[in-house]
Design a protein that fits this description.
about 230 residues; globular; disordered N terminus; binds manganese (II) ion
């Protein structure tokens, strides 16, 4: 290979490695049936999430220093982005980050209850798992339009657990909280199966919550003052 060709090839590898990629689902498309149907999951992952990844990569074109950054960094540092790409990068990096968390927040044949320190914290802050369910559903049903509902741990206040809503593709990381559990409230997450019935969708969603993943995130959150590790894209 000639020298310029080698240089071009190297550059191609470097740029390719820094492009954001759609993560594979950690289970088969029909693995969460009947609670989350295969057709919804196929479109949600393969079309919606994929488009956020594609749009993020497109928005970052011509900004090699930003292409190196993770989606989490881009969401947390939107104020450092150039004006002309800030909104697009924030929305699409948020979409990529949140959906990456979402796929892992669900699992087939998952345990129905949290254990260990997370279970204790839920009892402390909501009275019981039932108390959390009730509050999360009430908050989710009141959330207007396209949004996400979270169980998140405060970085202050002794690491108290709270239920939060973020509109668009917002993430509690930007508000001093660490995500523990998440459900997607955009209609594309449930419209095919549940049409407008968000409450029914959420009742089904509880059946596929992966409490092991929530426990992992809770353990990793290290509230309130130690430096955080983000095991996210
Ligand atoms: Mn979604």
């Amino acid at each position: 290979m000639s020298e310029p060709a080698q240089a071009v090839a190297k550059e191609a590898v470097r740029v390719a490695a820094s492009l954001h990629q759609l993560p594979e689902l950690p289970y088969a498309l029909d693995a969460l049936e009947p609670h989350v149907d295969a057709r919804t999951l196929e479109i949600h992952h393969g079309k919606h999430h994929a488009s956020y990844v594609d749009n993020l990569n497109a928005a970052l074109e011509g900004h090699p220093e930003l292409q190196e950054r993770t989606a989490t960094w881009l969401v947390l540092n939107a104020n450092k982005l150039p004006d002309d790409i800030r909104t697009s990068v924030r929305n699409n990096a948020g979409g990529h980050l949140n959906h990456s968390l979402l796929w892992k927040a669900m699992a087939p044949g998952a345990r129905t209850r949290p254990e260990g320190p997370l279970a204790e914290a839920i009892e402390r802050d909501f009275g019981s798992l039932g108390g959390l369910r009730k509050q999360l559903e009430a908050v989710a049903l009141k959330a207007f339009g396209s949004a996400w509902v979270w169980l998140a741990r405060a970085r202050q206040d002794a690491g108290r657990l709270e239920v939060l809503v973020s509109s668009g593709h917002g993430n509690p990381l930007t508000q001093g909280y660490y995500p523990v559990l998440v459900a997607d409230l955009w209609e594309h997450a449930y419209y095919l199966k549940h049409q407008n019935r968000r409450a029914d969708y959420l009742k089904d969603w509880w059946n596929v919550v992966d409490w092991r993943e929530a426990e992992r995130l809770f353990e990793g959150s290290r509230a309130p003052s130690e430096s955080l590790h983000f095991p996210f894209p």
